[in-house]
Amino acid sequence: APGTSVPSPALPDPRCWHQGVSREQGARWTEPGCLSCTCHGGRVLCEPMSCPTSCSHPLPAPEGGCCPSCSGCLHEGVARAEGDVFSLLDGNCTVCVCLAGNISCISPECPSGPCPSSSTADCCSCQPAKCSFHGHTYMHGAQFSLDGDDCTTCVCRSGEVECSFAPCPALDCPQHEWHLGPGQCCFACRDPPAPSGCFVDDNGVEFPVGQIWSPGDPCELCICQADGSVSCKRTDCVETCPYPIQIPGQCCPDCSAGCTYMGRIFYNNETFPSVLDPCLSCICLVR
Length: 287
What we know:
28 strands, 1 helix, mainly beta, Complement Module, domain 1, 3-stranded antiparallel beta sheet
C-alpha cells in the first residue's frame, strides 16, 4: 500500500512509496510546503527544510523557492542587486554597497572646525569657511557683485570667491545692429526705425501716415496708420429709391439728382414716353 514498504528477500535495499512515486533507498527530495523528505529503510521521513544563511541581509526566497538567497541584499525593504552602491535615506552622505548578501556602509569623516571643502559642508555639521574679499567678509554661499560692476556676479564657496560674467542671450540680428545701452550688461538689437508711410502694392507706391484713399472700390476707404499698417473700411449705403442715378466714382447711388430708366437718365420732373407702351407718359419724381 502507498506509504508502507514490505522488505523483500530479493531486494537488499528496500524502496519507498510516497504519493504514488517509488523512491530508492537514501533518496532525498523536496515536497511542497518546503518539506525535506528522505527514503530510509523503506520509510519516508519528512521534516521542515533548514535554511542556514551566511549573510546579514539575504533576499527573500523567490516564488516557488524555500530558502533566502545571498546573491543580493534586502535593506530597509528595498531589494538591492549584487554590487549595487546606494545612499541611505537619511542622507548624511553615507554610501553603502551590497556584497554577497551583506551591507557595508562608509560615512565621511567630519572635522570639528571649519569645513575644508563645500562638499564636506553638505555632509557634515561643520561650519564652511567665510570669504574675505576686497575688504568685506561674506558667508559661505553668499552672492554679491563687484564694486561698481553689476555685470559680474561672485559667490563665496568655503573661503574661496568665484566670479563670472552675467550670461547674455543670443541675438538674432546682425552684429552691426548690436547696441549696448547705458547701464546694460548685454548687447541688444537696435530698435527698427519708425515707419514713414505704408507700402500698398508691389510697385513701390507709398502713402504717408494719415493718408486716406480708395483702393479702386469707391465704397472702400483706407488710411495709413502710424505703425505702417493699412486699415480699410467699407461704406454702407442706407438711402435707396427705385430708380437712382449711379454717378461714376461715387459709392452710393444718388436719389436726389434724377432717375435712371431703361438705361437712360432723366432729371427731376422730366416727362418721357414709356418704352413698353407709347401711349403712356412717365415722369421722374425725386422723393
